[in-house]
Amino acid sequence: MNTAFQRLQREHRAEILTDWLQHLAAAVDRHSPHPPGLDAQRESLFDAVLTTLAERPNAHDFMLDPDSELGRYLNRLVTEQARQLASPSETVGSLLALKQRLARALLALDLSSDAVVESLLWLDRLFDALSLFAFKAFVDIRERLITEQSLSLLELSTPVLKLWHQVLLLPLVGVIDTLRARQVTERLLEAIAEHEARVTILDLTGVPVLDTSVAQHLMKTIDAARLLGTRIVMTGISPEGAQTLTKLGIRFADVVSRATLRAGIAEALLIVERRIAPLNSERQL
Amino acid sequence: MLLIQDCVVPPPLHWPTPYGYETAVYLPIHWESDVMAASRQARQLAERLGFSRSAAYHIATAASELANNARLHAGGGWLYANALFDATGETVIGLELIVEDSGPGIADPELALTDGYSTGSGLGCGLPGVKRLMDAFSLEAVPSGGVRVRAIKWR
Asked: N or C: which end of chain B has fewer CB within 10 A?
């Protein structure tokens, strides 16, 4: 038990809390909208902190238990802030603002110097643990967000479109790494089998850089697609891309390539023996 | 024409560590995403320095090849791209790419620069390709083990 913090909790709780909340409203919430219930959450955290300070469990090697009341309140608050894309310095900063206020209130209590030193050290240790915990929780949540986002991006970024009967279009947009190349190949092969595609147009307009690793991925995809009986028409290689590929010495042997998607579609329709003609062309003939 | 030996390479410690800098980019290479970032940042630097679109494309591809080499054959390294200035220190005359790794080194540099030769599963046209894409190229062993590749594109 720490009597100094017990006194703070008994006598000065309301005034420290108000001071802290006002400080946060002025310094932190100015930049981001103030969600409802935030003050209540901060108050629960505040009470949990004060209770822990007063009870003083294992002060010498204090570790914050994530399942304790304090751990859960802190986790919830940090989660919310991280999801709202606040900066980690704001989150940890709001904790440190509370520490500063508690230290000031402690010094105003008129205690013996031994008691002040001991209480300050304990305060320090607790807030070190809280800051570390908050920082780690913050980074964990952000990493999870990033993973989720990149997964959904991956979902979005590889559509295989059925352009016409037995003609597929695969527009590639963005960088092609191993993971994406694998996914593109899988999707394409499934689609080829499903639609019995005779031609697949591979549009590279949106691929920023064509280097050997991208070319290698593409070659594997093309080889696999051919085994399923489709012909590949590549389109959209930029003039710079073409020049770079030849300088690198990369050859896409036996692949039909057209500069634009329009020319590629014309080529694909030729292969399946179709054409795009004006509505009244027969009458004109 | 400047020879590649004339351009002094500052030691890594003194290099600008912030990622991206007005006239230089420094990036550690460990993952595939670092390779993408290296290529993107090299291209942005080239465009910022006023290189043509196709030259910027060549530089981006070269950066991607070299970074990928460091990642695949040496488990990682770093890429440094910087602007080269003339004697007045005002006009940009080129862009230099330096990629260094701490891997096992290249046993036979001449062979590594041969088209179609690869120790891994690659196409074997990375290094010779970079040599053709850029204007000056050097490959040297660093004392600590590993390889340092320098390549320059003049403007």
From this structure: N
Q: Is residue A44 within 8 Å of A73, Cβ to Cβ?
A: yes
Q: Of 1.10.10, 3.40.1000, 4.10.860, 1.10.490, which CATH number belongs to A3-153?
A: 1.10.490
Using CA coordinates, name the residue in chain A closest to B121. A216
Model pLDDT, residue B20:
46
Q: A250 and B132: CB-CB below 8 Å?
A: no
Which DSSP category does B83 fall into?
Answer: E
- A-chain CB neighbours of B39 within 8 Å are 208-209, 211
Three-class secondary structure of residue A10 per DSSP: helix
Prediction pTM value: 0.72
Residue B140 has pLDDT above 60, yes or no: yes
Residues of B in Cβ contact (< 8 Å) with A210:
61
Q: How far, in Å, are A31, A32, A38, A251, B135 from residue A85 at the CA level? A: 11, 9, 15, 46, 45
Q: What percent of chain A has pLDDT over 70?
A: 94
Tokens at A186, concatenated: 């899988």
Provide the pLDDT for residue B18. Answer: 42
